């Protein structure tokens, strides 16, 4: 059991050494893209919800 856990940890370290990690600048740019995209999607959903709510109020009167 402990041998399997040791092998797993060793193999995991080997795989992590193969990873190309992003630079600080690349990470910052990707973070900004995620924040802006999230804001745009939230705005779209909010506007769609408002419009659909207004349509439902008109239809149900």
Can you tell me about this structure?
The chain is mostly helical and 61 residues long. It has a domain at 22-61. 89% of the residues lie in helices and 0% in strands. It contains two helices and no strands. The model has no long low-confidence stretch (mean pLDDT 96).
Brief summary:
By secondary structure, the chain is mostly helical. It has helices at residues 2-18, 24-60.
Shape: elongated
**Low-confidence segments, ≥5 residues, pLDDT <50?**
none
Mean pLDDT: 96
If helices are DSSP runs of H or I spanning 4 or more residues, what is the number of helices?
Answer: 2
- SSE series: HH
Key features of this structure:
single chain; 61 residues; mainly alpha; 2 helices; 89% helix; elongated
Compile the SSE list and pairings.
Elements: H1 2-18, H2 24-60
């Amino acid at each position: 059991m402990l041998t399997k856990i040791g092998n797993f940890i060793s193999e995991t370290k080997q795989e992590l050494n193969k990873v190309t990690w992003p630079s600080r600048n690349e990470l910052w740019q990707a973070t900004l893209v995620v924040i802006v995209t999230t804001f745009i999607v939230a705005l779209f959903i909010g506007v769609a919800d408002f419009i659909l709510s207004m349509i439902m109020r008109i239809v149900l009167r």
